[in-house]
Amino acid sequence: LVDLKVMVSSFDESFMFWHDQGKLAGIMAIHVDDLMLSGTDAFNKKVIEELKKKFRLSTEVESEFSYTGLDVKQTQPSILVSQLGYADQITGIEIDKTRKNKNLLPIN
Q1: CB-based contact 34:44 (threshold 8 Å)
Q2: Angle at 56 between CA 53 and CA 57, to 5 degrees
Q3: Is 16 exposed, middle or buried (0-12, 13-18, 19+ CB in 10 A)?
Q4: Which of 15, 23, 71, 75 could form a disulfide with 9 if both were Cys (CB 3.0 to 4.6 A apart)?
Q5: Interior/surface letters 45-83, b for 16+ CB within 10 angstroms, e for the rest
């Protein structure tokens, strides 16, 4: 990635940016072995195609996918991100009736 002039975010090492002629042209998020990316045709050609030569990408999806518990759907002109699919998988936790009323007590 360094050879491709991809810059790591100073805020989060899992986010990376690529600039073309001084303008942001591509962004990548990496989590373990998953990539999420977006960018211009130049970003795809100069960065992503080069990555594909070095690493095997098993699955590529566009427009609608899940990434680390996020459901992502791209439409024109927006991108919708939700966690409804993840939230539906969470099972409830039973709280003993004697503990339920303790939420009404002041915090000290």
Answers
A1: no
A2: 110
A3: buried
A4: 15
A5: ebbbeeeeeeeeeeeeeeeeeeeeeebeeeeeeeeeeee
Q: Please give the span between the terminal C-alpha atoms of the chain, in angstroms, as a whole number.
A: 51
Which tokens sit at 91? 């099972």
pTM: 0.63
Task: Write the pLDDT tens digit of every residue in 72-86.
Answer: 888 888 888 899 888
Query: Parallel, antiparallel, or unpaired for β 34-39 and 64-67?
Result: unpaired
Place of tokens 């759907």: 73
